[in-house]
Amino acid sequence: MAATAPFTLAAIQRTATLAYIKALQSVLPITLKGLIAHAHSIAPELKAFCDSNQSTFKARDKGSAGKLVEFYIFGRKPNNDSTPDLEQGDIKCTHIKKTRDGYNAKERLTLTNVGATSDYANLQHILDNDLESNPRWEKVRQGILVVLERTEGTWTPEEATLNEQVTFFFHYDITMNPEWMAIMKADYEKIRECVAAKAASQKGQDFLHIHPHGSKNSTTRAFGFTNKFVTRLICHYGQLTPLIKGRSLYFCKA
């Protein structure tokens, strides 16, 4: 059998992103450090890119799982571009936590900034557009999610991040699930109502919500997935059964 051709940097970023993700999924679960090593073994061009662009990777980013994944696994230099990272959406990282009964998403997933309550005029795009015509829709619709679990150890912040366990890694597209879309649209209408009232709030939003983002007392607001919906995403793409106990949603790892 012929050996599989290595992934080129262009293929990772454009034409073969999903095939590349599948190749990385084959070694999970694995530490982030181990996943980076595997990525570089199947994509020598990516390794060469990372080696030659180390100077663009700032020291403060080395403790960020998201920045490490973007640079070392997808060959993306740090930037402030508002367009999605890849054709398949933005690259996002999140964490799971152990509960008494199993695991669930530790935090919500911030998707994109939408404006600030210091001037509701810059939230007008929410009132002027439905969900699928909103300028931020592509940031909501799909993305690549890397799910990690923190491990115990005495490390520097960078070492601690590199030793986190990558448990799931997948591309998601919420339009593929009609039930999700119906709930997202209902959430968006609730968001529109509170923005129209100049009282942006997360109240009553189940999957998609508008939430504060940035430093303490920041007026910046962002669209994000609730941690309960992130748990659902993990269950769906990880082929796990979502379990409910009271108001809690969780899953058991294989």
Structural write-up:
With 254 residues, the protein is of the alpha+beta class. It has one domain (9-250): 3-Layer(aba) Sandwich (ECO RV Endonuclease, Chain A), CATH 3.40.600. 36% of the residues lie in helices and 22% in strands. It contains 10 helices and 10 strands. It has helices spanning 9-15, 17-25, 32-42, 44-52, 65-73, 124-128, 137-141, 157-162, 178-196, 227-237; strands spanning 30-31, 90-98, 103-105, 109-116, 142-149, 165-173, 208-212, 220-225, 243-245, 248-250. The protein has a 5-stranded mixed β-sheet. Strands 4-8-7 form a 3-stranded antiparallel β-sheet. Strand 7 (208-212) and strand 8 (220-225) form a beta hairpin. The longest helix is centred in the last third of the chain and has 19 residues, at 178-196. The protein is globular and about 55 Å long.
The counted number of beta strands is: 10
Mean pLDDT: 92
| CATH secondary-structure class | Alpha Beta
The run of helices and strands is HHEHHHEEEHHEHEHEEHEE
The gross shape turns out to be: globular
Main sheet strand line-up: 1-6-5-2-3
CATH-defined architecture: 3-Layer(aba) Sandwich
